[in-house]
Amino acid sequence: MPLFFLSIFRIPKGILQKLDSIRRRFFWSGSQTGIQKPCMIKWESKCRPHSKGGLGVLEMEEMNKALLSKWLWKWQATTPSALWVRILRERYDSGGRSCCFPTPSARMTFLCRSWFVLAQEFNQSFRWQLGKGDQILFWRDKWCGDLPFCVVFPNLFQLVKYKEATVTAVWSEEADWQIELRRITSESQVEELSRLLAELHGKRLVPKEDDKLLWEGNFAQRFIVKASYIWWMRRASDVSGMVGKPNQIWKGRYPLKVKIFVWMALQ
């Protein structure tokens, strides 16, 4: 299947399973028709990266997500003022923020729904660098610490009057941070408020700079499809927790079929 289709449409699971079936059969039986050889190693093991003891075979569903994520990244960071982004934002409403994704709905085209259905998960790979604060949601975006405040302080979040407030709306030059809450009724809420204020200590807006979106999928904090594929693989199969045997055979100057044979012998 050409990468063009994988980068535009969310491929249905049934088609992906059929394609994987063809690839498995080709791997074990070659191009011979009518011959069905047994699969001696799990397909999931073959799809692990070399660094985790796998064969490095492309996992098509995660590659599909990685390629679609390119459009989400363009929407968020690189071309938020592009014509196609402005048209879709006007048609589907993105909550007023230039970087916010529309909520997937039945009235969307199949193409747009393919992109935005991934947005909730893909959002977790972003981090905001504070500038003016007008594009960052104080409670829901990740901009201070490793998680959004709504996740870190769930009891306090229940008391918030304006859950969609931006950082700018919560900041006051005269009174520092103004956290507008309903009545606090428990010690846990008091404790969470103290922790929140401690987290915010020293944080200041930078009025002359725009808020900047960073991608945490690699050390350079720049989006590339290869790194996005690895990020989706980690989410799907806990690649980071796999105990593999990073084989040195892939670095040797041997024919590929020899490397694959040695890898299979080590399983």
From TrEMBL:
Top-level taxon: Eukaryota
Protein name: Uncharacterized protein
Organism from which the protein derives: Acorus gramineus (Dwarf sweet flag)
Lineage: Eukaryota, Viridiplantae, Streptophyta, Embryophyta, Tracheophyta
